[in-house]
C-alpha cells in the first residue's frame, strides 16, 4: 500500500490509499462524521449488524479467493445479538479478509475498499455518502485527466524525436538518387528496427496479432515504453550520424531498451507520478 492521500468532503478530510486499480478509503475518517471522540467505536458498532456481516462476507467471496467461509459463517450466526462484538482486526485475522485493512503509524487507521467504504458511509448518513461518492469521483476524474495528459506529452515527444530521427536517416542512409518510394521503404525499416528493439516485433507482426485493436503498436505503448522510445530515437540518430550499420545499432538499442525499462519500472518518482 502507498502513503495515504486526502480529499475533502463537507469540510472533512478523508484519507485514501491506492493499490493498483483498487482504492481504500479511511473508515476512521468517515466515522468522524458521527463521532470525533471515538471513531473506532462507530466502526465496531457498524460491524455488529447482521446486514453488515452479510455484505462484508459477500464482498470477500466475490473478490478474495483466500477468504475463510467457515469462520465467516460463525460471525454471521452471532451477528445482531447483544453480546456480539467485532473489530476490524478480528475480522481480518479470523477470515483472512482483504476488503478491510488496519494500519498503524502516522498514516494509520481502518481503511476499506471503496465498495465497502460507501456502504459504511450509507450507514453513517445517506447525505454524507452522496457527497463522499461525488467528491471521490471528481478526484479520480482529475487523476485520469492528468495521466492522460502525461501520456499525450510522451507520445508527442516521441513524434518530435521521430522527426529528428527521420532527418538523420535522410542525411546519412538514403542516397540522393533513390526515389521517394524507395526512401519510404528505408524509413519503414528503421522504424521497425526500433519496434523490434523495444517491443520484440515489427509493426505488422503486432497488427497481425491484434486485429481487433485500433491504431498501431505505439498507440498502445505504456508510459515507460514511450519514454524509452523517445530516448532510442535520439540515440539511433546519433549512431546513424556516426556511420554505424543497422545490425550494430539494433543490438545497442535493444540493450538500451532493456536497461532503461528496468530502471523506469523501479523508479519511485515515476510510480508517484502514475499513482499520486
TrEMBL record:
Residue span(s) of domain KilA-N: 5-139
SMART domains from the UniProt entry: KilA-N (SM01252)
Pfam hit, one: KilA-N
Top-rank taxon, per record: Bacteria
InterPro entries in UniProt: KilA/APSES_HTH, KilA_N
Name of protein: KilA-N domain-containing protein
Organism name: Pedobacter hiemivivus
Phylogenetic lineage: Bacteria, Pseudomonadati, Bacteroidota, Sphingobacteriia, Sphingobacteriales
